[in-house]
Specification:
The complex is a heterodimer of chains A (about 240) and B (about 200). By secondary structure, chain A is of the alpha/beta class. Chain A is built from seven helices and six strands, in the order αααααααββββββ. Helix content of chain A is about 50%, strand content about 15%. Mean pLDDT of chain A is about 90; it is low at about 235-244. Chain B has ten helices and no strands. The model of chain B has no long low-confidence stretch (mean pLDDT about 85). Classes of the chains: A alpha/beta (about 240), B mainly alpha (about 200).
């Protein structure tokens, strides 16, 4: 080289008072990357535990009331919000693992499989201790936007012509043969419950949100054949409902 | 400080020792620059097609980045792989800044041509001048990612592990990239009716 390159660079370094970044800076940067990776795995696992909770509380046996096609029913009742959260966190975990010092050496498929396995294992563990249900219930209570979203999702079960309605019990007749149900569209139904089964000993009370299977009798009259809570409780089949 | 005995001392030092010394006293960084400036300058020119002057500007920024990041050098990596990686990143930054990729004939040397020709299993009868003219044409037409991997493998003589560390890609991806680059090269040769 014609010019003294090393001298030029050294002069630039000295003139501009350039200093090497400290070891601590790089350690901190590396720790942040690992922290975001760990958080993404935890949040991905949490999302997966809620997906399992939704899987458990879905009324699979009554799919034909929503759609004759089982696959269509799956698509209609899929917890899209949590699926998107799960995929998002698996994606973020992937990106951050690749940004760890030696992460680039890992093959794409291996990284994705490991992220999924970690999320599945932790997610199943969280689900088994009821975390999925708690997260869902807390969000319903504390996040109005999420609550609205959930209500809209539940409206898939509001199909009187196909023999299913949902809503909040606003009145129960003294003889116990009738009740009044306010559906999410604010239509009040008179429900004949004189010849109905209650899912696994479920006892209804005023204010409960329920799902009623039966036949539409016209003029907002519905003959109930089976009554279930709108949302089943996780774990042993002790029936509770989440307030609307 | 640059007396002959000191120069001899630094020549005998490993890259890792020089890094430790440069962190203590910035003057020693000059020896790292001297050790790598020629290799890196030709690497920049080969992968970017920049003029020598522009390549020197890129290289200056590269060495400043190397200096700033000296503490992040991990001994598990070869120092040469680490500096090539920073150089590769700086070339990409330069593309982005200028948003244009100047095209210029590559200055191919005999060693590179022989390595490439032997890997392509050619009959070996083509003369160097013929190879030089035609391989240049083909290399200029190739996508930068393929051109770079061929340069690293056949010019810089880096193994798969080093290429993986420089490009920050898994070994499998490097192998795929290299095999696609060779296929691409072969296809381009055929389309231009060139026989090696």
């Amino acid at each position: 080289m014609e010019k003294d390159f090393s001298k030029e660079i050294l002069e630039k370094i000295k003139k501009e008072q350039i200093k090497p970044r400290s070891k601590r800076y790089f350690m901190l940067k590396n720790s942040v990357v690992w922290f975001v990776f760990a958080m993404s795995i935890i949040l991905g696992a949490l999302s997966f535990s809620v997906i399992l909770h939704f899987w458990e509380i879905n009324d699979w046996d009554a799919y034909y009331r929503v759609n004759d096609n089982f696959l269509a029913f799956i698509f209609l009742t899929m917890p899209y919000f949590w699926l998107m959260c799960f995929l998002l966190f698996v994606g973020v975990a992937y990106l951050y693992l690749k940004h760890t010092r030696e992460g680039y050496r890992l093959e794409f498929a291996k990284v994705v499989i490991w992220n999924l396995v970690l999320s599945f294992v932790f997610g199943s563990a969280l689900y088994s201790v009821g975390v999925g249900r708690q997260v869902e219930n807390e969000l319903v209570k504390r996040a109005p936007l999420y609550n609205d979203f959930r209500k809209n999702q539940q409206n898939v079960w509001l199909r009187p012509e196909q023999g299913v309605i949902i809503g909040k019990v606003i009145e129960i007749a003294e003889n116990g043969d009738f009740l009044e149900l306010n559906d999410p569209r604010q239509v009040v139904w008179t429900v004949n419950v004189s010849d109905t089964e209650y899912f696994q000993g479920f006892v209804i009370q005023k204010g409960f949100s329920i799902k009623v299977f039966g036949e539409e009798g016209g003029n907002h009259y519905f003959i109930a054949r089976e009554i279930r809570p709108l949302m089943k409780e996780h774990g042993p089949r002790r029936m509770l409902v989440v307030e609307e | 400080m640059r007396n002959d005995s000191l120069i001899d001392l630094c020549i005998a030092k490993t890259d890792e020792e020089l890094v430790a010394m440069a962190l203590e006293n910035q003057d020693y960084f000059a020896y790292i620059v001297e050790r790598y400036e020629k290799k890196l300058l030709s690497y920049v020119i080969r992968i970017s097609g920049l003029s020598r002057e522009d390549a020197e500007d890129v290289l200056q920024d590269t060495f400043v980045k190397i200096y700033i990041n000296l503490n992040s050098f991990d001994n598990k990596l070869k120092f040469s792989s680490w500096v090539y990686r920073i150089t590769h990143n700086e070339v990409i930054n330069n593309y982005r800044k200028k948003k244009a990729r100047p095209e210029k004939a590559m200055d191919l040397d005999d060693e590179f041509l022989n390595n490439l020709a032997s890997d392509m299993r050619t009959d070996g009868h083509a003369d160097i001048q013929y190879l030089k003219e035609n391989v240049e044409k083909v290399m200029e037409k190739m996508e930068p990612k393929y051109r770079e991997v061929l340069v690293l493998r056949f010019w810089e003589d880096k193994d798969y592990n080093e290429i993986s560390d420089i490009l920050k890609k898994p070994m499998g991806t490097v192998a795929t990239l290299l095999s696609r680059a060779k296929a691409n090269f072969q296809k381009e040769l055929e389309s231009q009716n060139i026989k090696l």
